[in-house]
Design goal:
By secondary structure, the chain is α+β, with helices and mostly antiparallel strands. The chain folds into two domains: 100 residues, Ribosomal Protein S8, Chain: A, domain 1; 95 residues, no CATH class. It is built from eight helices and four strands. It has a four-stranded mixed sheet with strand order 1-2-4-3. A hairpin with a 2-residue loop joins strand 3 and strand 4. Helix 3 packs across helix 4 and helix 6 packs across helix 7.
Amino acid sequence: MRPGRPTLKGLWQAFDETTFGQDRTLNLRELLPSAVEARARAEAWLRMRQVMKTGEVLIITGRGNQSVNGIGVVRESIMALLPSLRRRGVVTSWREHTPGSIVVTLAPVTALLGAPRRNKQRKSVDGQNKAEVPASLVALEPETLRLLRRLAIRTIESLGVADAGPFVDEEMQRTFATLSKTLPLSTDREGKLRRAMRSAIDELEG
């Protein structure tokens, strides 16, 4: 091969960087985790990507050429994780991209919340529920509470409940608990929570 000529591997890598970008790529091959660490890292990362609404993402597992018997334990661990995440509303599908990488399609945030994506026949009660904020949520910022209440109402309405009012507080707490599990501890955690809620509201109202 002539010096300076790009390899097939280099061309694939350049293509992947253009298609997915750093934000939508998890490179486990570079991190060299154990199977257990890879599974935990991939689940946390996929949950975070879901609430950031990124569509398809790429997980690079490596082929496992250096593994015992040539079986990629990291790859096997991720392939075993994906069906569980589909049942829990985090991903919808996946496919082999290369022998050492997998393209995963993330589920909409509404799948995580267990709500139908759209309900064009809804009757809004946004202004009808003036109940006090649940005690467990009082520390949240006003804008976060506003979005949380709006999302709770939309979720209840999407399930065919005519009067969402009596169920809003409970749904707010359930939604907050569900989304919070997906978000890592960070200085902008509440900002990420608001972004996730806006994505879910857009899906329900779209």
